[in-house]
Design a protein that fits this description.
13 strands; alpha/beta; Rossmann fold; six-stranded mixed sheet; 2 domains; 348 residues; homodimer
């Protein structure tokens, strides 16, 4: 049985959902890949950087934390974040800290430190896709390590893997997506009669919107996703600030209702295409027929149409995901890594 | 430069679309995989079995056939179909003959002869998925050769590859799909006022339906697709005759129009789920709201929702495919094979 040591950066909802999947999969991983997962370190804002000198199994960590809110058998690490990533004994680093939309830090530095110290990096944070992505990808190639990020857009619904692994020989010419559930939810509430403030409050109460919802309402979240998809698929080098961006803040409820009475829904749409040989992306508030597939995206669901040269247009729709699907995205990246190692004998 | 020898069984529209893609990709294949494709044999109903003793490049074959309707520098093969597959020097056999819904033959024998003689098999024919699939898959394992079939359902839209390669660790619990464009087209024509016979004639004139449309109208095509997906994903062993099956033959135009006036569309739906621990599939004519994603599937488009344990429900939609997308499905299987050989050094 091979031990695979994992380092968690961040321990929020996504990390905990991932941990729960790991805890439930211990015997599967042993049977299928001959691997025993241990967690050797966790960094959190509240608890600081902790090492598990003996390594802790996902099940033991999950059960102890669920029961006590504390980490089992851990010791503090005295050093900064980069040292923690570099020096904690680990095979794979999971970057699960919150996104900083203006610099991508500290996630970019975390991922690069992981690769530089010979570790694979799996990121749930879009930062490394929208700031310095090309360089980070090169670093992974040079280090002979994997840099994976399936869960950054549409949770675990396989969009990056679909293009990379299932559409060989295809070129992505553009995409159109409804990728932000906060704005979707608020627009639908308003169409049914709510005022903007009331719709926002409801969204917050139902867990569709964060306390500070401005990143969603002003289109930053959509711009980040647009930039990430463009950088990975269209060889762009854009940051969210370079994406032309609509938002829905202060939108007039009467207008929304009038459109609805004419059979029209509003959707905040991420899209990109090639113009004059260059990839151009934008986030636009669009009027769409209410019987269109875009209008049918409700709640936490999202949809992405990928335009390709050889295969035409393909749409992937994710239905009513919860945090479990975000956790699955991290897990699917881990399994991809394990499968590649089993097949190629490369890697660690 | 490595030569990869290909044998074509069938030379209809899908085979010709695939050939055109191969002809356009010669330099890509040389640069990316160091491979030069040659075609060493073609079997067609009209021209019999032909060998190309020197091998012919896709471009030369395509250009000569487009100009003259004849094959270049070929000689007849004197022997039966199985001998042809076994003895024609080839690395990959492409099974592209028409489907036989009652036995799957001769496609099943073709694929097995290919594997038994040490060749990879890529099938556009659903036969090998719905008759003896489990045994054929075992034969491929034993031979250390690949048996791939992405284009059999939803053309080249990656559904089989999505589940196998992008949803690791997930179990498929069921699926629901709108997968037959002939019935879709006719139902929509009738909703707009046409009688059944008139709608069928229009479908035939526009190329949505074949001269003998009974396999589509009576749900056999949908039943074949349901059986194929169940056998591959749900470890079933069902043939189309075992699938409960609705059709649309003789459906009343007035009923269709009345439903439409109430905002309801009809769709012939393929679906499967696990019941009492066993996979059960059916083809059902369903009433769906006209603003649902199912009703939004028009023309040649199709849609498939895959229900999984860890990742929930994911839908893949293919928009307005032509025969080019069927050809791409075969091409994507070929590239998968080339990539795996490049990565693993296994195979030929």
């Amino acid at each position: 049985m091979k031990e695979l040591k994992c380092l968690f950066l961040g321990f929020g909802n996504a990390a905990r959902a991932f941990l729960r999947i790991l805890a439930d999969s211990e015997s599967d991983l042993a049977c299928t890949y001959g691997v025993r997962i241990t967690i050797t370190g966790i960094a959190t804002r509240r608890r600081g950087r902790r090492l598990f000198p003996a390594g802790v199994t996902p099940r033991a960590l999950h059960e102890h934390f669920a029961a006590t809110g504390e980490f089992l058998d851990s010791v503090p690490f005295h050093g900064d974040a980069t040292e923690f990533v570099s020096r904690c004994p680990a095979d794979v680093v999971f970057e699960m800290t919150p996104l900083n939309v203006t610099s991508g830090e500290p996630a970019v530095s975390h991922v690069r430190a992981a690769l530089a110290s010979g570790k694979h990096a799996i990121s749930a944070n879009k930062g490394p896709l929208i700031f310095g992505f090309r360089r980070t990808r090169e670093l992974a190639m040079e280090a002979g390590r994997r840099f994976l990020y399936e869960t950054t857009v549409m949770d675990g619904a396989p969009v990056f893997n679909l293009v990379e692994r299932c559409l060989p020989g295809c070129k992505v010419l553009g995409f159109t997506g409804v990728l932000n559930s906060t704005t979707n939810y608020i627009l639908d509430c308003m169409a049914q009669g709510a005022e903007f403030d009331q719709a926002l409050r409801t969204a917050q109460e139902c867990g569709f919107a964060e306390a500070d919802a401005s990143l969603d309402l002003e289109g930053w979240d959509s711009a980040c996703k647009t930039a990430a998809l463009m950088n990975v698929w269209m060889n762009a080098e854009v940051s969210p600030a370079e994406i032309r961006r609509d938002g829905i803040s202060g939108i007039d409820a009467r207008t929304v209702r009038e459109l609805r009475s004419k059979g029209i829904s509003l959707r905040l749409v991420c899209r990109a295409s090639v113009q004059d040989g260059r990839p151009v992306g934008e986030v636009v508030l669009l009027e769409v027929p209410e019987y269109s597939e875009w209008a049918s995206v409700k709640g936490t669901s999202s949809l992405l149409t990928i335009r390709t040269d050889l295969m035409g247009d393909i749409t992937v729709t994710e239905h009513d995901p919860t945090i479990q699907q975000t956790g699955y995205g991290l897990y699917s990246d881990l399994l991809r890594l394990l499968r590649e190692e089993a097949e190629n004998g490369t890697g660690r």
